[in-house]
Amino acid sequence: MHTLVIDTAYGSTVGIVGHEPIQEQNSRTHVERLQVDIAAACAQAGITPQDLDRIVVGTGPAPFTGLRAGIVTARAIAFATGAELLGQDDLEPCAAAMDAARRHNPRITTLLPAQAMAAIDTTATCTPLTLAVNDARRKQLYFALYSHTSGAPTTVIPMDIDYPEHIAIRVNHAIRDLQQHHPGTQYTIDIMGHGAHTYTQHWAALHNPGAILDLTALDLGATGLALFAHLAENRTTAQPVEPLYLRRPDVSVPNPLKHVLNHAPATKDAA
């Protein structure tokens, strides 16, 4: 089965599962190069788009324009080829990759920078949690908190957008709630995703912070690509192929036009 992964939540990542992905980090050109990179990824795998069986597209959370371009492209290719289309958010794979690193999965740990791997304490007796983040700009982060007690990532705090200092407070509140339900259990929090290093000063306020990795699962090459697709393919309920913006739109409903003397309020469609 030939599976194409397209993600434009941060730059763009395009690849056929089983092969190295093609990544574009330049936010000014990555959308324009999307079609070229898809053609190159198919050629690298020795197939044509008509050979695709499945397309997995990243649904964010991420800013509007780039994310929408990836999803629209995936939908168009799925429509043209008849390939199955699946959505996958970008935060859960961070938690899955971090869990694999903690478990010394060779395919993950060999791809992590040595300094990053050294920061992951695999001998700790604390229950690990992963704070997955993505840069939301405007000094904010998209984030979600996951636990790994049941094997696959389990959501503790659902995806949201907030300022880093507020995220730290919310995570600490969640941990206190967990400790009330599981007395005596200690937790450690690893942070992974684009923007993690930018706000390191705020993570010091977290309850027992651990490793901080400024990368995502898709930055781990072919292994990360396979992990991303695996999560989408093996969930019991498919994620909608809809963009996760999370931020309220900047536009707002305009105020009504002003009254003129004692007349009724004017309307925009008045003659």
Structural class: alpha/beta
**Strand/helix succession:** EEEHEHEHHHEEEHEHEH
Average the pLDDT over all residues and give the rounded result.
90
By DSSP (H or I, 4+ residues per run), the number of helices equals: 8
Shape assignment: globular
Count the strands? 10
Major sheet: size, sense and barrel closure? 5 strands, mixed
> End-to-end distance, in Å?
61 Å
* Strand residues, percent: 15-25%
- Enumerate the spans where pLDDT stays under 50 for 5 or more consecutive residues: none
Task: Give structural notes.
There is one protein chain. The chain is globular, with a radius of gyration of 21 Å. Helices cover 32% and strands 23% of the residues. A hairpin with a 6-residue loop joins strand 7 and strand 8 (154-162). The protein has a 5-stranded mixed sheet, with helices on both faces. The chain has a 5-stranded mixed sheet with strand order 8-7-6-9-10, sandwiched between helices. It is built from 8 helices and 10 strands. With 271 residues, it is an alpha/beta fold. It starts with a strand and ends in a 38-residue tail after the last helix. The model has no long low-confidence stretch (mean pLDDT 90).
